[in-house]
Write a structure and sequence with these properties.
2 helices, flat, mainly beta, 6-stranded mixed beta sheet, 7-stranded mixed beta sheet
Length: about 900
């Protein structure tokens, strides 16, 4: 490749010379001598940076760029011209090792003839230097002939061409010829600090009086020492050390004291008190090298709490139990500590508290508080507790008045904390009473069970009505205890009643059976007193009526509220509450009432009885938006009309009727639809009722020869108590189109002028029809006779029978009560015929239960002709429903 490059370069020179001579040179495009595919080549390798200056110990990472055709690797291998001066890693990181100049080469792995290089110049070493500038104590120059406590040593630094990584402060013991590193300083990174940072002084400190707080061993005995500093440089080729400075240690011996107590506390004034056992840990700290033989600890200056304790094993602890005096007599105590050296001389040093020691002087309280005098226990006169019972809280078992403490701040003293009471329960059969209240070690609870706050006692057997006695242990603020037996016993019952039955009220009859409508109220005929019977295996019942009654209401607004008329307070649960004497008048809030009840034993274990939901609804549904009447209503065809109906609670169904000018109203609920029907107890207040009239009647002949026009459509919704209301749409006669009939009237209808003697008779059996065996027990057979002139022909395609529903419904904003005729069934052909009399018979009609018994029912028959023509009979009221 090098030869080829030189040839190309020479050719370029020749071409340039020729051009300079003014000759025109034309260079033909080269075909390369090869019309095939060119072999991929590496065109060169470049290393950056191309030259770097380093100090010994420093590093730099080089980057190699390979110019190569597609398909060739662009990786390189690295090499150093002198690995003793600079090393290079496989990733191009160069580390300076010695002064000199080194060439680092990157060679292409795809073509070893292609390489790039960088020159690394490593500066000669100028050694770092370090010196001690000052040695201070408390900001002033230290007296090196009598050093005690902390020394602050300031160093001056010159790093030269080296990189200083860290500094060490070293103490040399001139007697034992040993070194101890007492402080270190590390620069923030391995990079050499700039000139300004490198020249900044560094101060390091150490405590010449350091010691082990557990053993008392000192780091440095008093004597002759020297101090020096050392700089640790990158590469490890040099570790310069400063000159040494001598000093003499003269720290004073002392005895460290750590006072602790079994119990501590603070009074209302924030003063610290102790109780139980007081321990004073003694740690001699000897800088002069002479051991301590004994240390004597007296608990107070007059030795009235306890005799002094002499310790010969050191470090050691002196402990003092309760004495005959406390701070009711002596307001404060300061332990007195003295010592004797091993050579027999008296300790002349000082005594100082160690970390964690109680503050001295301290206050002592050895006396127990007074026994608790008053208390409360939940559970009524029976004193039975269940699994939800909590000892020590504010509502179940609690000490009403905190016991007094002879050592209270008024005494003064530590004061009592009632939250430190402990409750212990004993089976009464094995209980040994304390008698009078006890204190201190006499408060033993062997055989008892400690009851922690918020817990209950478990019974060993469900049938066992064990009686428990209760003992309370009351602690003051520093652990002094008094115990007393409480005068009441109690039992524990964790089992709910069984075999629960109830009568009356919400627990009798069908769910949702009680529905009250317009102007109706609830009273004691609706609810009877709720009573319950149950079996309880443990605590039993001591309430006259162990029933709890509760109620909630979902009113028309949809917001749940409490409403139980006659109860002591809304939604309250009251033992023995009887609703029989409660009258829910017409003023009661409309809505859904859910009434529930439960029965509980004497421990409060409760079993819920089934709940029922009732409704008070006095407001009928109303319509809104109107009904669109078609311009042409064609007889004999189907008609479908819709309207929106709303209610204050819930719409359950919908439908409607057609009311004729003659006064006849026919019900079409069976062929109508309603969206969306509600659910009992849910506030579905709006729906669309669609009135379906499968066969539009264009005229009805009442038998007087008059032609009657349609009067109006009635569209309605029905709520959960059966109240109905909606829309009334009056129909102009001009909208009615009567199809051609087979009669002789102007529109082909049948009328009296066409048929002299034309009649439609009442249903058969003109006398009373008795239905024996109770209402709806048997069926009744209905018949209609159609009498026409001979050989005229039958005008009706079918005859249908209807009964009148006496229930009133409202049809508009101003209620109009309209009884409706509901279809029983139809007969399409006559049973008998002699061309003059046609008899239509419908049998096996079972009157619906809603008609009741002991009343007459009104029945008519309607004959239907072509194109919506019809005629109906007078009402037959001779059918009596009897029990």
């Amino acid at each position: 490749m090098q030869r080829v490059s030189r040839s190309i370069f020479a050719s370029l020179l020749v071409i340039a010379g020729l051009t300079a001579c003014g000759d025109k040179v034309t260079v033909a495009p080269s075909t390369g001598g090869n019309t095939g595919t060119t072999t991929p080549q590496v065109h060169g390798v470049t290393v950056s940076p191309s030259s770097v200056s380093l100090k010994i110990g420093e590093s730099v990472t080089l980057v190699a760029s390979v110019n190569a055709d597609a398909g060739l690797a662009r990786t390189v291998t690295w090499a150093s011209s002198d690995a003793t001066k600079a090393s290079v890693s496989s990733t191009g990181t160069v580390k300076a090792l010695a002064s000199g100049t080194v060439v680092i080469t990157a060679t292409s792995t795809a073509d070893a003839t292609q390489a790039g290089a960088a020159t690394i110049v490593i500066a000669p070493v100028t050694a770092a230097t370090i010196s001690i500038s000052t040695i201070n104590q408390g900001g002033l120059p230290a007296n090196l002939n009598a050093v005690a406590g902390q020394l602050d040593v300031t160093l001056n630094i010159d790093q030269g061409t080296q990189t200083i990584n860290s500094l060490a402060l070293i103490v040399h013991n001139n007697t034992t010829n040993t070194d101890t590193t007492v402080a270190t300083y590390t620069y923030s990174s391995n990079k050499a600090p700039d000139a300004k940072a490198a020249a900044a002084p560094v101060t390091m400190s150490f405590n010449t009086a350091a010691f082990n707080s557990t053993t008392g061993a000192v780091n440095f005995l008093n004597g002759s020492y020297s101090i020096k500093a050392q700089a640790n440089v990158a590469g490890g080729t040099q570790s310069p050390v400063s000159s040494t400075i001598n000093y003499t240690l003269t720290n004073a011996d002392f005895i460290g004291v750590k006072a602790t107590a079994t119990n501590t506390g603070s009074d209302a004034a924030g003063l610290q008190w102790i109780g139980g056992t007081v321990s004073i840990n003694v740690v001699p700290v000897m800088y002069n090298g002479v051991a301590m033989k004994t240390v004597t600890v007296a608990p107070d200056p007059t030795d009235v709490i306890a005799a002094p304790v002499t310790l010969s094993t050191l470090p050691g602890t002196a402990s003092f139990s309760a004495g005959t005096k406390d701070t009711l007599t002596y307001p404060a105590y300061t332990p007195i500590v003295t010592g004797v050296y091993a050579n027999g001389t008296a300790f002349a040093g000082f005594v100082t508290p160690l970390a964690g020691s109680l503050t001295t002087p301290f206050k002592v309280d050895w006396q127990a508080p007074a026994a608790p005098a008053t208390f409360t226990l939940k559970g009524g006169t029976s004193q039975w507790l269940n699994g939800t019972y909590a000892f020590g809280n504010s509502t179940d078992y609690k000490l009403v008045a905190a016991p007094t403490d002879p050592g209270s701040p008024a005494g003064p003293g530590s004061g009592a904390v009632t939250s430190k009471a402990q409750f212990w329960a004993f089976p009464t059969a094995s209980f040994t009473a304390l008698g009078a209240a006890k204190s201190g070690a006499a408060c033993k609870t062997a055989g008892g069970t400690q009851v922690t706050t918020g817990s209950s006692l478990a019974q060993s057997a469900p049938a066992d009505s064990t009686t428990y006695s209760l003992r309370v242990l009351q602690f003051d603020n520093v652990g002094n205890v008094v115990c007393a037996d409480l005068p009441k016993t109690f039992g524990v019952d964790l089992t709910a009643p069984v075999s629960v039955t109830s009568t009356g009220g919400t627990n009798s009859g069908a769910v949702n059976a009680l529905l009250k409508g317009t102007n109706k109220g609830y009273n004691n005929t609706d609810f009877s007193t709720i009573t319950a019977s149950a079996v309880d295996s443990i605590s039993g019942f001591d309430l006259a009526t162990p029933v709890t009654l509760s109620s909630t209401i979902l009113p028309t607004s949809g917001t749940t509220a409490c409403a139980l008329a006659g109860a002591p307070s809304p939604c309250s649960a009251t033992n023995g509450f009887a609703i029989a004497n409660t009258t829910w008048s017409s003023a009661n809030t409309e809505g859904y009432y859910t009434v529930g009840a439960s029965v509980a034993d004497r421990a409060g274990n409760s079993v819920a009885l089934s709940s029922k939901t009732y409704v008070i609804d006095r407001t009928a549904p109303v319509g809104s938006g109107g009904v669109a009447i078609p311009a042409a209503l064609v007889g004999g065809t189907a008609v479908s009309l819709s309207g929106t109906v709303t209610d204050n609670l819930t719409l359950m169904a919908g439908g409607g009727s057609v009311q004729y000018a003659s006064g006849l109203t026919i019900n079409y609920d069976a062929s109508s639809s309603f969206n969306a029907a509600g659910t009992f107890g849910a506030l579905n207040k709006s729906g669309t009722a669609t009135l379906g009239v499968p066969w539009f009647i264009s005229d009805l002949q009442p038998g007087n020869g008059a032609t009657d026009a349609l009067a109006q459509f009635n569209i309605r919704g029905t709520d959960e108590v059966g109240l109905s209301g909606g829309l009334a749409a009056v129909i102009p006669p001009a909208n009615i189109t009567t199809g051609a009939g087979t009669g002789h009237g102007a529109n082909g209808e049948w009328n009296a002028s066409d048929f002299t003697g034309y009649t439609v008779s009442k249903p058969a059996a003109a006398t009373n029809v008795s239905i024996a065996g109770g209402a709806n027990a048997t069926s009744v057979t209905l018949a209609a006779n159609v009498v026409l002139p001979a050989n005229v022909g039958l005008p009706f395609s079918q005859v249908c029978f209807y009964y009148q529903d006496p229930k009133a419904v409202t049809t508009d904003a101003t209620p109009t009560f309209v009884p409706e005729y509901k279809q029983i069934g139809c007969v399409s052909s006559a049973a008998t015929s002699d061309n003059t009399n046609w008899v239509y018979t419908y049998g096996a009609w079972t009157p619906p239960a809603s008609l009741g018994t002991g009343t007459n029912v009104s029945i008519i028959a309607i004959g239907f002709g072509a194109n919506g023509h019809a005629s109906y009979t007078a009402a037959n009221t001779n059918i009596t429903l009897t029990p």
